[in-house]
Fold this protein.
Amino acid sequence: MEWFRRTPRVALVLCAVLIVVLLNGAKAKKPSGSSKKEPKRTHEGYVPKGRPWYERMFADGTLRIALFWGWDHPRETIEAVFPAFETLNGKKVYFNGRSARIELGVFTSVTSDAKSLFKDALEDPTIDVVIYSGHARYGGGMAFSTRDDIFRSGNGENIEDRHTEPYRYFKATAEDLEATVFSQDYRIVMLNCCDSEAHFRESWSKRFSECSAPIDLVTVEFPVYNLYDHVRILNFVQDLLSLADWKTIKKHYDSEVHKRKNRLVTYPVFVPGQDDFASYDSEKKKD
């Protein structure tokens, strides 16, 4: 212990402080390939152009909207849309002198085989708008009857599942999306789930392209607080029934601030041109 007595106390204190700093700064290693917790958000100033292709949505005389609530959604949030949907069901909306009967369907986690019904809705050419509102399972996909009953449609990234302790890690595969055959009919798909822009834009756009499907994909950039989802969903449906353009739809969605701001992201994949209007007009004359 002679060296200890000869060592100045100041030096010992400095060594002790250095050890504490190093220990506090040490980070637990994550498994290789684990994903970042915070996706990039880059659409702060982005304003979409154009509007939904209402001509096609009204072409068959029916405007059909299918709304899917995901697993673990608050009951009061789901029930909050029923009065408005019941009022709207069966009513008519008009565009350029053409009417369409409104048909609204609501599916929840207790709906039998909701995941399969979601796939059916995506493939059904008569459904004009498909909305999912719920968990994104950290990019794994849409969750339905349970947290692991996932419509797998991820971008292929490695996911950190923070619903469990210790955290689980798995790859965000897309086998359910790849098995979905989208028709070549215009429709809108809205994924109102946490960071869906970062998690799903790539994989869903790729599948739309493979199917040559003219679909407007609507996503969001930040976490979604499901206690308030019904407000944004009702605003979205109301804007569609009001024949709003994408700029207005985004403005109304973004204006609802619950705990933090969120951003709606839409890249219109199809903006009707003169030939499309002419095609629509010729179909209208045949009716």
Remarks:
- The domain at 54-268 is CATH 3.40.50 (Rossmann fold).
- The radius of gyration is 24 Å.
- Residues 19-23, 25-36, 277-281 have pLDDT under 50 and may be disordered.
- The CA atoms of residues 104 and 216 lie 19 Å apart.
